[in-house]
Design brief:
Blueprint (H helix, E strand, L loop, with lengths): L2 E3 L13 E7 L6 H9 L8 E7 L6 H14 L3 E6 L6 H11 L4 E5 L3 E3 L3 H6 L7 E10 L5 H9 L4 H5 L11 E5 H7 L10 H12 L1 E2 L2 E2 L1 E12 L5 H22 L9 H24 L5 H4 L1 H18 L20 H6 L1
Parallel strand pairs: 1-11, 2-3, 2-5, 3-4, 7-11
Antiparallel strand pairs: 5-8, 6-11, 7-8, 9-10
Helix pairs in contact: 1-2, 7-8, 9-12
C-alpha cells in the first residue's frame, strides 16, 4: 500500500498499453463540450485507446451532445461509444456500465466537469510499467474560475490527490483522475453500484487490501505528469451539497471499512474562529485586497471553512448506508477483444 511518485519511478521507455477511458455523466451539458475537446486532443495513439462516455439518466441535453460527438471522434480516427445507464442513478453504476463495455488492459477514469491536459493519458499509463502498481492517481488542479467560491476551493486545494493519498486508513485516488489495472480490478470486482459517494476510496482500498500480485499487495502511484483541471462549485448551494456528500462518504466508509468518523466542529471552536476572523483576519485581508495583494476569497476563508464543515457534519450525521449499497458487482466473465485487435480488424 506504499504510495510511489513520479520522482521515484524508473525511467522506462514510452509505454503504450491498450486503455479504455470511462466517463460517467449526469446533466453535464455545461462541461461536455470542453471535456470532449480535451479527449479528442489526447496525444495517446488512437489505435490504443477507446473513449466510453456513459449517460446516467440525464434530463438535459447530455444524450444529444454525446450522440453528436460520435462523428467528431470518428473524423479523428478515434474509437468512441456513447453508452447509457438508466437503471441505477449512481456515477459508480455508470462507471460499471463503461467497464463492462471496455476492451482495454487498463481503465482511465475522469468526470464530466474535468479538463484533461493533452498528455494526460500518456502520463497516467507510464507508471503501470511497474507490474506491482495496480492504481495510478493523476494530478488534479483547479480549472481557472471567476467566482469567489471557485477561487476559495482553489485556494484550499479542494480535491487534491495529495490529501486522499495521505489518508490515515489507506491511500486512495479520486476517480476524477484515476487509472486502474484491469487485472487488479478483476480480483475484487467492480464498483458498488448503489453507492452514491465514497466509491473512489472503496474500490482503491479493496484493490490494495484484498488484491495482490505475486503475493504482494497492489501499490498505488501518484502521477504528477498526468494532470487534469477540475471545475469547482460556483454557488453556495453547490458547495453545501458537495461537503454534505463528503460527510455522507465518511459515514458510508465507516460502515463499510470501519474508518474513523470526522470529529464534528465544536460550537466553541466555531465561535472562536469567527471572532478571530472578524477581529484579525478580515481587517488584514481587507488591507491586502486594497493593496492589490489579495482576493475577496482570501477575506472569507474562515466563514466558508465553517460553512463547509457544518455541511460535512450534517451529512455525516444524517447519512445511513443503504442495504443495497453494500453489494459488490462482479466482473464480467466473458473474454473481450482488445482495443488494438478491434482497431486492426
Amino acid at each position: 500500500m506504499d504510495v510511489e511518485t513520479d520522482q521515484d519511478a524508473l525511467d522506462f521507455p514510452t509505454y503504450l498499453p491498450s486503455v479504455s477511458v470511462i466517463v460517467p455523466i449526469y446533466n453535464g451539458e455545461q462541461d461536455l463540450p470542453g471535456l470532449l475537446a480535451c479527449l479528442m486532443a489526447q496525444t495517446y495513439p488512437a489505435k490504443q485507446v477507446e473513449y466510453l462516455l456513459v449517460d446516467n439518466a440525464s434530463s438535459d441535453r447530455t444524450p444529444q451532445i454525446l450522440a453528436a460527438a460520435a462523428a467528431q471522434f470518428a473524423a479523428k480516427g478515434l474509437t468512441y461509444k456513447a453508452l447509457s445507464e438508466r437503471n441505477i442513478q449512481s456515477a459508480y453504476a455508470a462507471r460499471n456500465t463503461g467497464i463492462r463495455a471496455a476492451t482495454g488492459e487498463f481503465l482511465a477514469f475522469t468526470d464530466a466537469d474535468c479538463y484533461p491536459e493533452p498528455d494526460w493519458l500518456m502520463g497516467l499509463m507510464q507508471p503501470f510499467q511497474n507490474e506491482q502498481i495496480g492504481l495510478v492517481a493523476g494530478k488534479i488542479t483547479a480549472f481557472p474560475g471567476t467566482t469567489l467560491l471557485e477561487r476559495y476551493a482553489e485556494r484550499k486545494g479542494t480535491m487534491s490527490q495529495q490529501d486522499t493519498l495521505a489518508h490515515v486508513f489507506c491511500p486512495y485516488g479520486q476517480t476524477a483522475n484515476l487509472g486502474i489495472r484491469l487485472a487488479a480490478l478483476k480480483q475484487v470486482g467492480l464498483f458498488r453500484p448503489y453507492l452514491t459517494t465514497g466509491g473512489d476510496a472503496d474500490i482503491c482500498w479493496r484493490i490494495q487490501r484484498e488484491g495482490s500480485y505475486k503475493g504482494q499487495p497492489w501499490e498505488i502511484h501518484y502521477a504528477e505528469n498526468a494532470p487534469i483541471q477540475h471545475r469547482h462549485r460556483q454557488t453556495l448551494k453547490e458547495l453545501k451539497k458537495q461537503w454534505y456528500r463528503y460527510g455522507k462518504s465518511n459515514r458510508y466508509l465507516n460502515e463499510l471499512h470501519g474508518v474513523r468518523l470526522a470529529w464534528p466542529l465544536p460550537k466553541k471552536e466555531r465561535n472562536r474562529t469567527l471572532w478571530r476572523w472578524a477581529l484579525k483576519e478580515l481587517p488584514l485581508s481587507t488591507i491586502q485586497w486594497v493593496l492589490g495583494r489579495g482576493t475577496t476569497a482570501d477575506m472569507l476563508i474562515s466563514p466558508l471553512d465553517i460553512y463547509c464543515a457544518q455541511a460535512r457534519d450534517l451529512g455525516q450525521k444524517e447519512a445511513k448506508l443503504p442495504e443495497n449499497a453494500q453489494q459488490k458487482a462482479g466482473y464480467p466473465v466473458a473474454e473481450q477483444t482488445s482495443v488494438a485487435q478491434q482497431a486492426d480488424g
